Amino acid sequence: MRRPIIAGNWKMQKTVRESVDFARQLMIAYAAESPDRRVIVAPPFTSIYAVAEVLMGSGIHLAAQNLHDKQAGAFTGEISAAMLVDAGCEYVIVGHSERRTLFGERDDVINRKLRAAISFDLRPIFCIGETLEEREAGRTFTVVERQIKEGLNNFAADDIKPIVIAYEPVWAIGTGRTATAEQAQEVHAYIRTVMGRAYGDTLAGLLNVIYGGSVNPGNIGGLMAQPDIDGALVGGASLDVESFVRIIQY
Ligand code: PEP
Hints:
The structure is a single chain. The chain has a single domain, classed as Alpha-Beta Barrel (TIM Barrel). The chain is 45% helix and 15% strand. It has twelve helices and eight strands. The protein has helices at residues 16-32, 45-55, 81-87, 97-102, 107-119, 132-136, 140-151, 157-160, 181-199, 201-206, 220-224, 241-248, and strands spanning 5-9, 38-42, 60-64, 91-94, 123-128, 164-167, 209-212, 231-234. Strand 1 (5-9), helix 1 and strand 2 (38-42) form a beta-alpha-beta unit. Helix 1 (16-32) packs parallel to helix 2 (45-55) and helix 7 (140-151) crosses helix 9 (181-199). The chain starts with a strand and ends with a helix. It binds phosphoenolpyruvate. Phosphoenolpyruvate is lined by residues 9, 168, 173-174, 212-215, 233-237. Residues 9, 168, 173-174, 212-215, 233-237 line the site of phosphoenolpyruvate.
């Protein structure tokens, strides 16, 4: 039985004060509702520690949006897995399409970041997804399969267990243009097949594969009704407590 995950990615938004206020309000709403699902928020680095203090004992989990693959050293501007754990994170988003397209992160870099995360017991939310051009060229399955294989290169079954896969079609992120529930389901089922071939159907059946791309309170229900969609990674609609809580309560 896969427990649904609803994760909010705040990107480069919210000051420390705004983050703390949001966390306090969310805690009140969440305490009353939906204890059967896992709720995660991913604030910017500057807010992580303050939000961790507020959320302590609340059952709401904390993610970072990125990490560096090295443990420590002369990497100006970077943050390590150990630092994220120390600040209170349990999860980290790896390979978000904005990291891939705006910051040039390739599959080999993502592979090293995933390795760094699991070495420190930080659960990766591993993002994959095709561009519009790739979808229109009929290459969606090929692209997500390559991203999975290269991202998880040299990963054993035990390494896979903590990973959450987020299927995020790039054309649906921040565009208001969401994949239909059927389009998303088709790719989620394929992702599970690819994982099953590599790691066995039992493990693939336990993996959380969540969807991201313009998820909102109006479309979450249809997405979550699909058999292989186990939750959502939410950008824009996670910035407002009311809309995020409506998504949590789909
Ligand atoms: C995201 O950033 O992961 C995302 C899915 O954003 P949005 O919900 O705004 O499309």
